[in-house]
Amino acid sequence: MRSRYSAFVRGDTAHLLATWHPRTRPTTLELEPGLRWLGLEVRDHRATGVDRAEVEFVARSRPTTGAAHRLHERSRFLRDGGRWYYLDGDLS
User: Fold this and answer.
1) What is the pLDDT along the chain (92 residues), one digit of tens a residue?
2) Model pTM?
3) 32, 13 Cβ separation under 8 angstroms
4) DSSP state, residue 20
5) Domain boundaries, given as residue ranges, for the chain
6) Distance of CA 76 to the CA centre of its chain
7) Other CB atoms within 10 Å distance of the CB of residue 52
8) I want to staple 15 with a disulfide (CB 3.0 to 4.6 A). Which of 1, 7, 54, 84 is the partner?
9) What is the architecture of the domain spanning 2-91?
């Protein structure tokens, strides 16, 4: 989760796509230009199976103009071939 947040901060779409499970990964990914990431709080994490896990987090960001935004999500991850991949998530 932290590496994916760092990739958003750096605008590293290659890392984001590489850590997204092929079953749910988009073909392309465009990030919002000028978005400034302000912080990540991991609130909870738990195993949901041998090769499955969930992470609840809040990420804060601010666009170039306007008010700050909070993204609160419970993300699902799957271990495949020894690597963890982002599957999807539910926004709160």
Assistant:
1) 889 999 999 999 999 999 999 999 999 999 999 999 999 999 999 999 999 999 999 999 999 998 999 999 999 999 999 999 999 999 99
2) 0.91
3) no
4) B
5) 2-91
6) 10
7) 14
8) 7
9) Roll (3.10)
**Quick one: which of 58, 9, 13 has its CA closest to 36?**
9
**Using an 8 Å Cβ cutoff, are 45 and 35 in contact?**
no
Residue with tokens 């709160």: 92
Gyration radius of the chain's alpha carbons = 13
For the chain, the first-to-last Cα distance in angstroms comes to 17
Cβ atoms of 36 and 56 closer than 8 Å: no
**Contact criterion met (CB below 8 Å) for 8 and 31:** yes
